[in-house]
Amino acid sequence: MPPTGVPSRPTGEPGRAALLRRTLRRHAAGVTVITVPGPAGFTATSFTSVSLSPALVSFCVARASSAADAVARADRFAVHLLGITDTDLADRFARSGGDRFAGARLELHDGLPVLCDAPAWLGARVAARHPAGDHLLVVGEVQAGGVRRRTPALVRHDGAYARPVRLLPRVPRDA
Description:
mainly beta; seven-stranded antiparallel β-sheet; three-stranded antiparallel β-sheet; 3 helices; 15% helix
């Protein structure tokens, strides 16, 4: 008998996508904005660290995204780690169409658009690109970055923005 929640027969491709989407709603992910020269940018929750030596990070972009072509041509990118007060910025870069940069305060670092209002950012040179289903996986070597302000991270969980809450240390029952 299969464990609870595991289908007993193979699921077709649409069923697997629905399973993945439904299950990943249980996974909290940090909200970032990725920008490339052009400028182009989009909101992403797929950002992650890859390696400390060398310092590598990665993200994925949907091939159907309006930013996908610019990302595929770019030799560098910036990732902006958003805080709990940055939901408007996340929403702006999540929308398709329109000028996502309209009204945004920008600095250029070696031609790379960096959002001034993001609490922290990293700039990276593209080290590798890999097709990954309906997405493109991009790996970059960190070249620059900074923390402008300390704030709790903006996360996405169960289809909504959320804030992380630090848990108290667990006290042993014997104490």
